[in-house]
Amino acid sequence: MSFDPTFDPNAASPADSGIFGLSDSPEEAGVVLIPVPWDVTTSYRAGTSDGPRAILEASRQVDLFDIETGRPYLAKIALLEENVAIRAWNREARADAESVIAAGGRVAPDSPLAEKLARVNVASQRVNEWVYATAREWLARKKIVGLVGGDHSTPFGTIRAHAEAYPGLGILHVDAHADLRRAYEGFVYSHASIMECVTREIPSVSRLVQVGIRDLCEEEHDRIAASRGKIRTFYDVDIAASRRRGAFDDAIARAVAELPDEVYVSFDIDGLDPVLCPNTGTPVPGGLSFHEASALLRAVVEAKKRIVGFDLNEVAPARDGVDEWDGNVGARVLYKLIGWTLRSQGIG
Fold first, then answer.
1. For position 82, which CATH number holds?
2. Which residues contact 241 (CB under 8 A, 6 or more apart)?
3. Which of 56, 114, 172, 321 is 20 to 30 A distant from 164 in Cα terms?
């Protein structure tokens, strides 16, 4: 890591600065972040397409010295420019998706609604391919690559690129939801189907370890049971019971023990207590505190496992455009993800 002697990490961030008030270019950065402003299949309430912008704005208020992970900024961190095409695709596909969502996904073959559903699925595949190609490009340049969504459908391409670069990796999935529904409401790449798609379409992912799950359907429960251990789910109700016994650390240690040596972290902000993310697409009571989420990442590092990539999704700004709380929390979770990833790789 090189240090720019003209940069003052203790000073206020310029209004036009990059992520976390930094001015690092993607070419020189050790960590490259891909923003994906996409929330087409969000079925309860939209708004996460503005998550990357909200996180960027709030990140300029984050102090760069972190008491747990040190100075992640020294590795140099860059957020790519938003792809304006994706935002345009999001507007177009969302208009089609809303009719399908209103119908509860009950779409008759050869109907106008079926045509809209087909267009959404094509657009989702287009986004997946763009994300995959972008992540693959920066991984080839030996960067640590993270994704900032958007809804939780967005990291499929990033996970695919990492699984190719690190065959046999495991996914640590922090979420309120299992995301194991098959083509929820007819959307093949639904935000509620991301882990079903990953486990079905990316066979080089060796293990899916889910933490904080507290909202799932019978189909998903059966899918976990039938996975023969490839999916290990640590339910929020059990983690809460461990917390009451003063055994939270033991609970997360059991989850981490199920992961292979190389780990990709997929972090849905609604895995946290919704007090921390009230405007997320599908908030659910329960969840991890901010410090518990960081403790989970610390446990991965202390178990000598290597975090090779990550994503953060489902951050949504308040609809009134005034309350910046969700972006604030999202930016700080993102900095923890970066910091613990660097620590796991012996950087910093």
1. 3.40.800.10
2. none
3. 56
- Please give the structure tokens belonging to residue 108: 């008759």
What does the alpha-carbon distance between residue 174 and residue 333 come to, in Å, rounded to a whole number? 12
pLDDT in tens, 73-96: 999 999 999 999 999 999 999 999
Give 111's contacts (C-beta < 8 A, 6+ positions apart): none
Gap between the Cα atoms of 314 and 276, Å rounded: 12
In a domain, residue 247? The reply is: yes
Torsion of CA 320, 323, 326, 331, to 10 degrees: 120
Q: Hunting for tokens 């992540």 — which residue is that?
A: 135
User: Cβ(275)–Cβ(287) under 8 Å?
Assistant: no
Q: How far apart are CA 161 and CA 129, in angstroms?
A: 10
CA distance 62 to 19: 10
Closest alpha carbon to 253 in 189, 298, 216, 288: 298
> Which residues have a Cβ under 8 Å from the Cβ of 303 and sit 6 or more positions away?
253, 256, 257, 259
Angle between helices 51-59 and 325-344 (to 10 degrees): 80
169-225 confidence digits (pLDDT tens): 999 999 999 999 999 999 999 999 999 999 999 999 999 999 999 999 999 999 999
Amino acid identity for residue 68 in this structure: E
Q: What total of structural domains would you count in the chain? A: 1
Is there a contact between 344 and 301 (Cβ–Cβ < 8 Å)? yes
Specify if 106 maps to a domain: yes
With tokens 């953060």, the residue in question is: 312
318 inside domain: yes
- Number of Cβ within 10 Å of residue 91's Cβ equals 11
Residues of the chain below pLDDT 50: 1
Q: Residue 266 is inside which H or E element, if any?
A: strand 262-268
On whether residue 1 sits in a domain, the answer given is no
Paired strand residues for 209: 172, 232
Q: Judging by DSSP bridges, how do beta strands 144-149 and 207-213 pair with one another?
A: unpaired
